[in-house]
Design brief:
It is a single chain. The chain is of the alpha/beta class and 431 residues long. It contains 15 helices and 16 strands. Strands 5, 6, 7, 8, 9, 10, 11, 12 and 13 form a nine-stranded parallel sheet that branches. The protein has a seven-stranded mixed sheet with strand order 3-2-1-4-14-15-16.
């Protein structure tokens, strides 16, 4: 890999912004530069300083006036659901049974899985998403296809074979033992190969027997470095059914805690309808509540209570949840997150939103030493964003005078057209 220097306005976060004017939480350079060598960021800062320290013959790629940031990170997405997106249903359980479970059965075919792995990563990169944590299907072959394509592209991706042994079509179920064995095989085959990270993935309590959650807990104990991903408290009917299936649990969160799954490695998709007790338990464990705003609105599931979660000290993330979500774009996702908080009476500053989509999500995945910032030593996964991507945005930009206004404009009116360039481990990607 050759060395290169990217020039443009640069933005990178140091911590979660505590207010709109929390300038100490980020570094913004109006004429900045990022030095990339061997797939890593080796320097970032003012252009004049970085260029002076770079080799004399360094290749300079000028992205001005675009904004250079770490690539977006999507910590909750379903790889087999590209053709489920925009399926009409009244609620979560109808949507699962009518569309999702039908579609996911097709991933028993290895050729189908391989085709969609290519399409999936093409779409993520087009949207500026350079890392995702994905649910594959129940079939080991779907995880194999996912990780093989990620490795071919040198992407840092998290994924897992779904564990699901009840309340789904027979063709889409495994067993407690086979899900354990297949996950062990996926770990052996793919974890740490290239930039791949395997996650233990029980879909949710409704589709796992106690024996399977026990198997997931065993995997978590045997591989304490691995992430665990599942769903929690997405809608009222789901919660009621879960408590019927697990009558000894105090609440939905307690189901996972009872099997040793509620740890600082756990990503809890949705986490909308939580009691104070549940929030306190999640905070104590260090687990992550993953907000999926377009999905929650699309399925009518509820409004994520970000303010209350923060007050309880719960770690958070934000994600698209394709195909329950309605857009692959993290910009569109940030827009819907802002609107949900408006309905909650909680003002969500743009700087906090962009922190969440980059460094915040990297912290949620335990990968902030690798991705999510422009810090020296991290992987050079970088995007260039254009706030003038459409005629309407160009008109609005004529009156924009601050970074906050620009970020808000991009999350409100932007989409894949705002993503002008993507670098993966320092290499430019054709969009």
């Amino acid at each position: 890999m050759t060395a290169k220097l990217l020039r443009g306005r640069t933005l990178s976060f140091k911590s979660r912004p505590q207010a709109r004017d929390d300038h100490a939480s980020y570094v913004y350079e109006t004429d900045g530069a990022i030095l990339i060598e061997n797939g890593l960021i080796t320097a970032a800062g003012p252009f004049a300083d970085v260029k002076a320290a770079a080799p004399v013959d360094i290749e300079i790629i000028d992205h001005r006036p675009h904004l250079l940031m770490a690539g977006f990170i999507d910590p909750h997405i379903h790889f087999p659901q590209m053709q489920v997106t925009a399926s009409y249903a009244a609620n979560l359980l109808e949507w699962l049974n009518t569309y999702t479970f039908v579609e996911e059965q097709r991933f028993a075919d290895d050729a189908h899985s391989a085709r969609f792995a290519t399409l999936f990563f093409d779409e993520l990169l087009r949207q500026g998403t350079t890392t995702a944590a994905a649910y594959c299907s129940v079939h080991k072959g779907s995880a194999d296809a996912y990780f093989a394509e990620a490795q071919r592209r040198n992407l840092l991706m998290v994924g897992g074979k779904v564990m699901m042994d009840r309340n789904a079509p027979e063709a889409l179920t495994d067993t407690a033992q086979s899900s354990y064995d297949d996950t062990k095989a996926v770990i052996a085959d793919w974890h740490g190969k290239g930039r791949n990270h395997v996650a233990i993935t029980p879909r949710f309590a409704i589709t796992s027997t106690p024996a399977q959650l026990e198997a997931a807990g065993s995997l978590a104990r045997e591989h304490p470095d691995l992430l665990i991903q599942t769903h929690l408290s997405e809608n009222d009917a789901e919660i009621a059914y879960t408590l019927e299936l697990y009558p000894d649990a105090r609440d939905y969160t307690d189901v996972y805690a009872g099997y040793g799954l509620l740890t600082d490695k756990m990503l809890l998709g949705h986490a909308i309808h939580l009691s104070d007790r549940e929030m306190a338990a999640i905070a104590e464990a260090g687990s992550v509540a993953v907000h999926c705003p377009t999905s929650n609105l699309f399925l009518g599931s509820g409004l994520f209570d970000l303010k209350r979660l923060k007050e309880h000290g719960v770690r958070t993330a934000i994600a698209t949840d394709i195909g329950g979500g309605s857009s692959y774009s993290l910009l569109r996702t940030l827009d819907e997150a802002y609107k949900i908080q408006q309905l909650r009476g909680h003002r969500l500053p743009p700087v906090e939103n962009y922190w969440q989509a980059t460094r915040g999500n990297a912290e949620a995945l335990g990968l902030v030493e690798r991705i999510g910032t422009l810090e020296p030593g991290t992987d050079a996964d970088i995007i260039a964003l254009d706030a003038r991507a459409t005629p309407a945005m160009q008109i609005r930009m004529e009156t924009v005078t601050t970074l906050e206004e620009e970020l808000f404009l991009m999350q409100t009116m932007g989409d894949d057209r705002s993503v002008r360039h993507v670098y993966v481990a320092g290499e430019s990607v054709d969009l």
